[in-house]
Amino acid sequence: MKKSLVLVVSIFMVLSLVLSACVQKVEEPTQAPVVEEPVEEPVVEEPVEEPIEEPEVEEPVEELGPVLKIGQIGQMSGLMALYGLQQQRGFEMGLKYMSEGKTDEQGRYIIANRPVEVIVKDDEGNAEKAVALALELIEKDGV
């Protein structure tokens, strides 16, 4: 029974390969593109107006709110360091997108009128160290 089932399946496979090899590709005739001659429009001269100079007004500088601290824990060293670095770069790209590239004097991105500071910690792939780092970020760094 098994041999006959294998035989039937293999015959169907060979048959489908043979039939697909016999199919001819049909190309549709292409039409030559129609070229239209450009129509020249008459040139109308408009009176030239001198631009009115407006006095420059300085935009008021908004004071920034308090710094928003974000903690990021990942495996930045060891066997999986590549993934940790990709995570860090991706997060920075998201910050740049959300801030539309606006930064303060210290190079921190500004989102919702608040500078964003990211504190990155390496857990070295150790879960216990990651917990300790999370507590440190919350208690010591105020994230």
Give an overview in words.
The protein has a three-stranded mixed sheet with strand order 1-3-2, sandwiched between helices. It has three helices and three strands; from the N terminus they run H-E-H-E-E-H. The model has no long low-confidence stretch (mean pLDDT 80). The protein is of the alpha+beta class and 143 residues long.
Summarize the structure.
This protein has 143 residues and is α+β, with helices and mostly antiparallel strands. Helix content is 36%, strand content 13%.
Q: Helicity, in percent?
A: 25-40%
Distance between the termini: 69 Å
Compute the number of helices.
3
The total beta strand count reads 3
**Molecular shape:** flat
What topology, given as strand order, has the largest sheet? 1-3-2
Radius of gyration (Å): 34 Å
Note the run of SSEs as H and E.
HEHEEH
Strand content: 5-15%
Uncertain parts = none
Which keywords apply here?
3 helices; flat; 143 residues; three-stranded mixed beta sheet; alpha+beta; 3 strands
Layout: helices, strands, pairs:
Layout (H helix, E strand, L loop, with lengths): L1 H20 L46 E7 L6 H19 L9 E3 L2 E9 L4 H13 L4
Parallel strand pairs: 1-3
Antiparallel strand pairs: 2-3
